[in-house]
Specification:
With 251 residues, the protein is an alpha+beta fold. Strands 1, 2, 3, 4, 5, 6 and 7 form a seven-stranded antiparallel β-sheet that branches.
Length: 251
């Protein structure tokens, strides 16, 4: 049974996390709240981030509250309200975890429009958004890449080489390593850089043939590295689509 929260309930403040952490593990759908996402963010002092996935533009916030990793989202075109998810880590009691969030928001169960455990829910009309993170269309990786390539700052904030490579590595790990599979070997074969290096170190050798710049890098150096990385990834993805169309350029 989910507790009915009140404004007098004491709770720990929400600790916000970065959006790219959404790729580090599966999400479990919990509930749809009638509260607007901006109102949820205001009550918890969160910053809403904007991104794009295989289902279109999305606004979201990732945060930890009382030991639970929460995600609150709203996709463009979704019905009004806030979709609540948690990061899966062992058994999930949806009523108890949602109760933690309602307590922090200072609201009761009357704001729960749909839920996975039954309250407020006609289970014959489960919201489509609950399936978004479980069965993404095959082309969602391509859509992600196009969005990331064209709107890098929207994903990572301040553009630095470390930030961009960490984001892409996190996305790849969250997808089971299928997005960048073979990149390291392709860079080694195509550009003659050591296969014993991680791909982000290989890219630096390719983009800065005169040698890696001394730290700290200037913004111009970060920009050069990121633009070079994006160009190399574009070439790599084109190679995957047509391996015969891009002969090796070693030597």
């Amino acid at each position: 049974m989910i507790p009915d929260a009140t404004n007098d309930s004491a709770t720990e403040p929400a600790v916000q996390c970065s959006m790219f952490q959404a790729t580090t593990g599966p999400l479990v759908s919990m509930a749809l709240l009638s509260l607007d996402l901006d109102e949820v963010a205001r009550r918890l002092s969160l910053t809403i981030e904007e991104s794009w996935d295989g289902n279109g533009a999305v606004r979201a916030a990732f945060f930890i509250l009382d030991g639970t990793d929460f995600v609150v989202t709203h996709h463009q075109g979704d019905p009004p309200g806030t979709y609540v998810w948690v990061r899966k880590s062992g058994p999930v009691d949806p009523a108890a975890r949602t109760g933690i969030l309602l307590t922090a928001l200072g609201v009761g169960t009357d704001v729960v429009s749909f839920s996975t455990w039954g309250i407020g829910t006609d289970l014959s009309h489960i919201p489509a958004a609950w399936r978004r993170f479980r069965h993404r269309p095959v082309d969602s990786h391509q859509r992600f890449w196009e969005s990331f390539r064209d709107r890098t700052g929207m994903h990572v904030g301040r553009i630095t080489y470390e930030g961009v490579t960490a984001y892409l590595n996190g996305y790849d790990q969250g997808c089971g390593g299928v997005v960048l599979d073979g990149l390291r070997e392709w860079l080694a074969d195509t550009y003659g850089v050591g296969e014993n290096l991680v791909w982000w170190a290989q890219v630096v050798l390719i983009v800065f043939p005169e040698g890696r710049p001394d730290a700290p890098w200037s913004q111009d150096q970060h920009t050069r590295a990121v633009e070079g990385l994006i160009a190399l990834l574009e070439e790599f993805f084109q190679h995957l689509q047509d391996p015969a169309g891009a002969p090796p350029r070693t030597g």
